[in-house]
Amino acid sequence: MTTMTRTTAEEGTTMRGKRLRAVTAAGPRRRALLHLTAMAGVLGLAAGFLAQGASPAHAELTPENGLLVSTREDFRLCVDTTGARAAAGSARGELAASVARVQQHPDWQAAFGAPTTARAAVADSCPEARLPGRLDRTSVVGPGVTEEPSKYRTWVHVLDADTADRLLGRGVNSLNVSAELMRVSERELATVSTAVLVRAGHLDDPAFRDGALTEGIGLQPRDGAKDTSDRIPSVKGTSKDASKGTSEKAAAQPGR
Fold first, then answer.
1. pLDDT (tens digit, 9 = 90+) per residue, 47-79?
2. What letter does residue 120 receive in the DSSP assignment?
3. How far apart (Å, rounded) are the C-alpha atoms in residues 84 and 153?
4. Cα→Cα distances 152→76, 92, 148, 233, Å
5. Percentage of the chain with pLDDT > 90?
6. Can you tell me the distance from the alpha carbon of 165 to that of 157, in angstroms, rounded to the nearest whole number?
7. H/E element holding 212?
8. Among 26, 118, 126, 163, which residue's CB has the most CB atoms within a 10 Å radius?
9. Distance in angstroms (rounded) separating the CA atoms of residues 76 and 63
10. Maximum Cα–Cα distance for the chain, whole Å?
11. Could you give the CA distance from residue 69 to residue 239 in angstroms, rounded to a whole number?
């Protein structure tokens, strides 16, 4: 009986020793697994912070679509007015209605996607809008040459009678010039945003809507509308495509 008891005790001691060695051996593996799991979590968080803090993609010229710039996600138009503040709200409403009509242009969908209310919306105030003292073929109404163009493809400036007479001339109701340009080469610039200057009271004029506004958005003017393309390159695939650029001399000086 004593021998059996001693043997059982020895066996128990041996079993406990084996379990202890097993636990001791498993410890490093378990710690390594926990360490890898923790590191994976840290790396995941780091990737998330890097993604959130990453700088936006650099703008590139994309003349194959109506937006012209790779960083633009959709068609956007802004408006500035001179003169009485009370006229600003009315101008936005009239302009939005005219843009909605331009959306019926046969080339609209190919350039900007399906016509929507959002694409006819008019943002109040254009960034860095600057009217020059006078206008000529070299005038730029906007930021001018830039590496990061704004989200606005078209900038509309509604001018009171005195400003319109000074900039456009008596009897002239609208004119298109460059607002933003990107460099195509060392000596060439391409218009990527168009400034449409229009005399107040003519926003709902069919001649303006089908002519200067349509062209300022980047589409060919409708048949019968006055073509102002000698002033600003069109962005549909023609010889006046923005990808061909415009001379640096004609675009170097922004309006002041």
1. 443 344 444 578 999 999 999 999 999 999 999
2. G
3. 26
4. 5, 15, 12, 17
5. 51
6. 14
7. none
8. 126
9. 16
10. 127
11. 19
Contacts of 110 (CB under 8 A, 6+ apart): 66
Q: Which residue has the higher pLDDT, 249 or 3?
A: 3
Burial class (CB in 10 A: 0-12, 13-18, 19+), 245: buried
What band does 221 get if pLDDT is binned at 50, 70 and 90?
very high
Alpha carbon of 243 to those of 99, 109, 145, 186, 233: distances in Å? 25, 20, 15, 14, 10
How far apart (Å, rounded) are the C-alpha atoms in residues 47 and 148?
A: 26
For residues 37 and 136, the model is more confident at: 136
Burial degree of 192 (CB within 10 A; 0-12, 13-18, 19+): buried
Q: Tell me what percent of the chain is helix, strand and coil, each rounded to the nearest 5.
A: 40, 20, 45
**What is the rounded CA–CA span in Å between residue 153 and residue 139?**
18
Q: State how far the Cα of 195 lies from the Cα of 213, in Å rounded to an integer.
A: 10
**3-class state of residue 41 by DSSP:** helix
Residue 65 burial by CB count (10 A; 0-12/13-18/19+): exposed, middle or buried? Answer: middle
200 residue type, one letter? A
Higher pLDDT, 31 or 240: 31
Distance CA 188, CA 150 (A): 20
What is the structure's pLDDT at 35?
43
